Amino acid sequence: MINMNKKAATKNKENTPNSEKIDEQEVAKNAQAEVVEEVEETFEETLEFWKEQAMRQAAELENFRKRMTKEKSEAIIYANQRLIESLLPVLDNFEMGMQAAQGDESSMIYQGMLMVQKQLATFLEDLGVVTIETQVGDAFDPAIHEAMSQEESTEIKPEHIIRVYRKGYQLSGRLLRPASVIVSKSEDAE
After folding, report:
1. Based on the domain organization, do 150 and 121 belong to the same domain?
2. Whole-model pTM above 0.90?
């Protein structure tokens, strides 16, 4: 019986190290699996972070490109603005000369000036310059008109244009120079 107990104890001793080895292996495998899982989670989070960063940078680059394209086109459109603004007083004087010469429309000088006026109008139109159409009786608009003074008028409604002193101009929708006008006021306003 002692002999059998020794054999059973020996078998138990042999089984114990193997089961300990199996337990250690399972613990190691579980720990390894946890580490792999943590690494995968960290990797996924890092990957998401960098994907989001890449998308933001791509969006910023696209916005920058659009802004640069817009600024470039505006620079091209408005590049001649100073030149045109300097040319407007010359154009005003030319039109006064045309009005003075209008009495003799059959003269060659007047015909030549008329041709030059048409060329100037075409040139300015090609650059995107538009005359602000202002007529006597139109409502005063401070966005495109400059009031030189106010006068009482019984024929024109208050806050409407009595006279146009100088034409106004726009360049591609941007105001170059407002039209200079005299505005009517009611007899009561003072």
Report:
1. no
2. no
